[in-house]
Amino acid sequence: MNTSGKISFNPITPKIVLGVAAHPDDLDFGASGAMAAFAKDGASVHYLILTDGSKGSADTTMTPEKLTEMRRQEQRDAVAHFGGAGVEFLDYPDGQLEVTMELKQDIIKAIRTLKPDVVVTMDPTMVYSSLRGIINHPDHRAAGQATLDAVYPLARDHMSFPELFEQGHEPHKVKTVLLINFEHNNFAVNITDTIDFKMKALEAHVSQMPELEKTQAWMRDLASKAGAKNGYTYGEAFMRIDID
Ligand SMILES: [Zn+2]
Fold it and tell me: Which CATH number fits domain 16-242: 3.30.530.20, 3.55.10.10, 3.40.50.300, 3.40.50.10320?
């Protein structure tokens, strides 16, 4: 704690990062600048996408199967732009994600397999924003809640899901969680050198960006504001929790 009562954090240089989100594109909106910065510093960056993304289209000729395949490729392309290590898709139905033990088990499995020191996910406390005039997608909240539950205590304790332990998935303690929250945050990653990777990552989501330039301008503005608060040209802001 510093004298203002605000928590002050040192920058982080993780070795292994796991991003967990509901849909292809969520992590690229909220965290791809940071993911690119971590990758640039040598981290192995992985994405785990929980739903099949099969509902996100206004095109009435689109089918769920076609959209799922398209969005998978868009997500792979986005991660490839910044040198991410890979993407795994769990294929829960889009729009119906719930915080179940099954979902938590799937996330625990990823955590115990990859052993990330940093996990990035959505902030489940973000329900709505009257400032931006939005209700947060329920899948986003479910993704964040299930991930937090998986990080603590479930991935840590070998007696939680003993079948995973028996299959060789050793318990793992995550050091830091970064929650994507555009309005309430306590930490920023310097993305001055990686803002262009973020723009490229957004560009990859062709099916989701009918107004790409407008979206990129909004993201650039947000990054500029988050950076200004922290002495960076561009930043990406998170609610950071360092787990004791
Ligand atoms: Zn989403």
Answer: 3.40.50.10320
